[in-house]
Amino acid sequence: MKHVYALFLIFSIGVVVPQFSLAIENIIINGLFKDKVVVTIDGKQQILKKNKLTPEGVKLVKSNSKEATIEIDGIPKIFTLDEKIGNTFKTTSDVKKPYSFKKTVTIKADAMGMYKTSGQINGKTVEFLIDTGATLVSMSSDLAKQLKIKYEKGKKIQMMTAKGPSIAYVVELNKVKIGDIELYNIAGSVSDDMSGRTLLGMSFLGKLGMKRKGRYLVLEK
Questions:
Q1: Strand order of the sheet with strand 209-213?
Q2: Which sign does the torsion angle of CA 70, 27, 66, 218 carry?
Q3: Which one, of 28, 37, 87, lies nearest residue 67 by Cα?
Q4: Residue 10 CA: distances (Å) to CA of 5, 33, 40
Q5: Are residues 98 and 125 in the same domain?
Q6: Are residues 173 and 211 in the same domain?
Q7: What is the pLDDT, as a whole number, of residue 162?
């Protein structure tokens, strides 16, 4: 046991994961090793070994020094130690309440280095261009009409485009969604000069965590 605690002191990191199930209030991942994980479940420290099920319904599927796949009540999740505390896990399947997990969307850059992805506005499918330089979720008036958005009732503003100054209308979008991430009551803009492009701007992106991994952009809720 002394050897195990020595490894624990070297590799330990506190990662609190709240409310995985009705039976478990919290889990703290303290250390990751080959086919073994040091955890604290509801205040009780223990060592998970591969394919051994705990009384709380937790089972280690596999692990190494970088990540572990752990099943909680039969639902697998991946845990890593290379991210900041409070932002360290992702689900490998869709999970419904009472579970509460981080949701991620990964987008690969195209040949031009641009991040494009399909998504939805008010339940209708659209193609987004990720644009951190855009303040709002911006679309053309043609698309707004297809989505039955009465943009003419929105606040009229002047915005700058590649063609110069342009008139746009600020609207509230009921729901914007990409992948498993959906947000409500998002500010958007509608302009005749968008030329068919739909920009996923900071009114949506600013509510998420963003990081780049090589050619990939990872968005996290």
A1: 104-108, 216-220, 209-213
A2: positive
A3: 37
A4: 9, 11, 17
A5: no
A6: yes
A7: 65
Which of 212, 208, 161, 209 has the alpha carbon at shortest distance from 189? 161
The answer to whether the CB of 137 falls within 8 A of the CB of 187 is yes
Q: Are 21 and 73 in contact (CB under 8 A)?
A: yes
Is residue 73 scored above 70 in pLDDT? Answer: no
Give pLDDT, residue 13.
41
Euclidean distance between CA atoms 190 and 144, whole angstroms: 7
Question: Amino acid letter at 52?
Answer: K
Nearest to 121 by CA among 187, 169, 209, 76: 187
For 173, the domain range is: 107-220
Q: How far apart are CA 46 and CA 25, in angstroms?
A: 16
For residues 61 and 112, the answer to whether their CB atoms sit within 8 Å is no
> What are the pLDDT digits (tens) for 12-22?
444 444 334 44
Instruction: Decide if pLDDT at 75 tops 80.
Output: no
For 160, other C-beta atoms within 10 Å of its C-beta total 8
Per-residue pLDDT tens for 193-215?
887 789 999 999 999 999 998 89
Q: Which of 36, 42, 40 is nearest to 60 (CA)?
A: 36
Same domain, yes or no: 136 and 200? yes
Total length of the chain:
221
Tokens of 159: 């915005």
* Total structural domains within the chain: 2
Gap between the Cα atoms of 150 and 157, Å rounded: 16
